[in-house]
Specification:
alpha/beta; FAD/NAD(P)-binding domain; nine-stranded mixed sheet; eight-stranded mixed sheet; globular; binds flavin-adenine dinucleotide; FAD/NAD-bd_sf; FAD-dep_OxRdtase; Glycine/D-amino acid oxidase-like deaminating enzyme
């Protein structure tokens, strides 16, 4: 990726007079930023203390309190519940699970990895069901997921991926290639192959986060906002595990870390998960004529098969929201808290939008924003609880955490209650992963990896009909 977008590229991006950059995300511009809950009033004791009020923390609190109403549970959130990736994402509630299937199978066998994939599919329905039960209006439509290839190399990769998934828990009806469609319901320009899976829904992410926080609170979970945890301490002899904040220290039988892309800012966690940026843009609502041309009546979530891939949805109010990696990593694990997005990332996403949907290329862009996701050194998510030191965590979902965090929440509930269940036997439970390299290696490494991915995408678009060797090289450097 070029570091500076040319003036011509920047001018080409049509902007709405109401264009905004940052402001957490467009989803909050739509739903309204929430009034802040009070901060932690002072040092206190709880049974369980959860650090981070995103989907992971909130699902864990929700399920735990539901199972054991007598437990006293505190969620400590640095900003407001849903401030992180949970309130900024692409709204793919999908069965996609990040990480190498082979790696999980190495430790637990292939059957266990297949069970994990099936649990992900069930989790899509679980989220939809809880949202219905709790009256959470999150614009949910279960229209499935469509993946498109727009050049021969992408097509080869898509075919390979469908075959691979069918070996790892997707049965033929769970993901399949779409036959050449004479009248496709979703017209994506340049499509040479497409695959479909019914296991996905479109959601409005911030509405889910806000609704979930309210549902947990109704059960009696205490959510404290504007409360940054600086350090998480393990049990030390007779001293209980604790979360230290500027407002006081919360001691608890168990402390759960649910800070995903922000984890590096906690004392002692700098090299744990790499904070990777992901950026999005959204158009103003498109005209009925444009929609007649594009179709997309099924509201399926849409992705492409590029190495630096994009993900998109048709919003409830008829816009296109599209996201991608943008500037994936900043030196020293930096990121813009408020979501302000660099001009070149906006220009790049707009180019992808215009390429896939020429009919929407004149549509003004209303908003751009970014968020951070957590990437473990081996790119494999984990959930873990150690009763001895009293600490647990879940995360490292890379770019697929909307559904995975629900599975994590139910799994942490079972682990906290010392229940041995199908969930606690899944192969992502209890894994330990080594940390990332120190700076500047971390920064140089990620620049090289994404530089190679983008060059590979350009070569594949131009001439190469198979996956570029550059992309394979990037995968090896990344340790995927
Ligand atoms: C732009 C973007 C698009 C994405 N699109 C998708 C998608 O379409 N589908 C999908 O499956 N996944 C997607 N993801 C990933 C997904 O959103 C995340 O994996 C998921 O939301 C992670 O939830 P979480 O609760 O673990 O983390 P977060 O939502 O990031 O929550 C962590 C919380 O911890 C708080 N916190 C951090 N540090 C501290 C501290 N020291 N003390 C107290 N609180 C703290 C933060 O303020 C934050 O609220 C996307 C991510 C981004 C950024």
């Amino acid at each position: 990726m070029k570091l500076v977008a040319s003036a011509a590229e920047m001018r080409a991006v049509p902007r709405s007079p109401h264009f905004r950059n940052g402001g957490v995300s467009f989803w909050y511009r739509q739903a309204g930023l929430p009034a802040r809950r009070p901060a932690l009033p002072g040092s206190a004791d709880y049974d369980v203390c959860i650090v981070g009020g995103g989907y992971t923390g909130l699902w864990t609190a929700y399920y735990l309190k539901k199972a054991r109403p007598d437990l006293r549970i505190a969620v400590l959130e640095r900003e407001f519940a849903g401030f992180g990736a949970s309130g900024r994402n692409g709204g793919w509630l999908s069965a996609e699970f990040a990480g190498s299937r082979e790696r999980y199978a190495e430790s637990h066998g292939k059957g266990a990895m297949i069970a994990l994939q099936r649990a992900m599919m069930a989790s899509v329905d679980e989220v939809i069901e809880v949202a219905r039960e709790e009256g959470i209006e999150a614009d949910i439509v279960k229209g499935g997921m469509r993946l498109v290839a727009t050049n021969p190399a992408q097509k080869a990769r898509l075919l390979e991926e469908v075959g691979h998934l069918q070996e790892w828990g997707y049965w033929p009806e769970d993901i399949y290639l779409l036959e050449h469609d004479h009248e496709p319901r979703l017209r994506v320009d340049g499509t040479v192959a497409a695959a479909y899976s019914p296991h996905a829904a479109r959601i409005q992410p911030a509405k889910l986060a806000l609704g979930l926080a309210a549902a947990a609170e109704r059960l009696g979970v205490e959510v404290f906002e504007d409360t940054a945890v600086t350090e998480i301490r393990p049990r030390d002899g007779a001293t209980a595990p604790a979360a230290v904040t500027e407002h006081g220290t919360v001691s608890a039988e168990h402390v759960i870390r649910a800070t995903e892309g922000f984890t590096a800012s906690l004392n002692g966690q700098r090299r744990q998960w790499l904070p990777m940026n992901s950026s999005m843009i959204v158009t103003e609502p498109l005209s009925p004529e444009t929609w007649k041309h594009i179709g997309w009546e099924g509201r399926e979530v849409l992705g492409d098969a590029a190495h630096a891939y994009v993900y998109a949805q048709r919003t409830a109010d008829d816009r296109i929201a599209i996201g991608g990696r943008g500037v994936p990593y900043r030196f020293g694990s930096g990121h813009d808290d408020n979501g302000a997005t660099q001009p070149q990332a906006i220009a790049e996403l707009w180019r992808a939008l215009a390429r896939l949907f020429p009919a929407a290329s004149e549509a003004p862009i209303a908003h751009a924003w970014s968020g951070v996701l957590g990437v473990p050194r081996d790119w494999c998510p984990t959930v873990r609880l150690d009763h001895a030191d009293g600490l647990g965590w879940a995360g490292g979902y890379v770019g697929s955490g909307v559904t995975t965090s629900n599975l994590a929440g139910r799994t942490l509930r079972d682990l906290l209650l010392r229940r041995e269940t199908e969930l606690t036997r899944l192969p992502w439970v209890g894994r330990r992963v080594r940390g990332w390299e120190p700076e500047p290696l971390r920064w140089v490494g990620t620049q090289v990896i994404y530089g190679l991915y983008r060059t590979a995408d350009r070569r594949e678009a131009d001439r190469v009909s198979h996956t570029s060797t550059l992309a394979r090289m990037a995968g090896r450097i990344a340790g995927r």
